[in-house]
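Students often ask why we bother encoding 3D structure as a string. The short answer is that it lets us treat folding as translation between two languages. Here is a chain of 228 residues written in the first language.
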Amino acid sequence: NTISYTPARRLSVQTQTDGTTAMDFRLAAQPASEAVDRSWFSDVWFLGDSLTQGMQMYDTGLPGAMFCAYRGVGPNAIVNGTSCKRADGVAEVPLDALTAQQPKAVYLLLGTNVLGTDSDYTSFLTYYRLMLDMISQALPNTKIYVQSITPVRPEVRKKSPGLYKERLCEINDALSAIALEKGCTFLNLWEALADENGDLIEEYAQPDGYHLLPAGYDAWVDYLCTHT
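And here it is in the second language, the structure alphabet:
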């Protein structure tokens, strides 16, 4: 399956009315809308890795949301039905946990941990596509939000050669096209978390340069409330 992957159609960069240009994935993202009350998330699940675990563990103002969050997980684990360990130590198969709940919406954020080497990411995209297909089949009445891979601080590249803004933007370009192709909603978290240089805002960053402090989660949640 991974060998036969056909790259998703690329979105072209366009010039906006003020003369500036936007990155591809920004054009594909859900536009801002009137903010919903945080109770809207009471029947919503978040599927992701340690970044999503952080949202679960910090006081983000989404007490009713539910989480399938596992450290180090990537889309391949979801596709392969791998047993993953939650923050409380309980092991479960993510898609089984989601299917049992049939939420009104699911938010996905997977990839940072498996994109650390500066190598071809075709397999990652293939697994992401397969994951979206499997979730759509298992949750036919659930709206799926694909969240962009989040920005990082420049120094992260020294320890994780694959985590730098130019490469992450390319991956987000492809993710946004896949999301549209699969009928999902793409969310550009860079609007909330990146500075003018495209780096993770310093005040939001943990010392490792890519995990978030509580202020970063506050900004993230505020963005989600205005992009439903």
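Translate back mentally: Residues 7-13 have pLDDT under 50 and may be disordered. Keep this in mind for the problem set.
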